[in-house]
Design brief:
Layout: H1 24-51, H2 68-75
Length: 83
């Protein structure tokens, strides 16, 4: 028992035109989720870069003698009587 009612021009507040004209709520949700994912990824990358640690390792010759014996001799502390 519903009556058909005519919509008057004064009752229309907004009329959207174009692609997805009156179905923008789904588009807004998708846009919001995409923006949140982008921002979340950027924050994660910044935190990962800020908290990263890296071991410092010196590579190259020391004092012109690159033999393994010389390297191990340089690595241990000097004792009395060592040349």
């Amino acid at each position: 028992m519903s009556e058909e009612r005519r919509i008057e021009p004064e009752q229309i507040l907004v009329a959207r035109v174009g692609n997805g004209a009156n179905c923008s709520s789904i588009g807004s949700v998708v846009d919001t989720l995409f923006a949140a994912a982008v921002v979340g990824t950027a924050v994660f990358a910044a935190l990962a870069a800020a908290l990263a640690t890296e071991e410092v390792r010196v590579v190259g010759e020391r004092g012109g003698d690159a033999s393994p014996e010389a390297a191990s001799a340089d690595a241990r502390p000097a004792r009395r009587g060592d040349p």
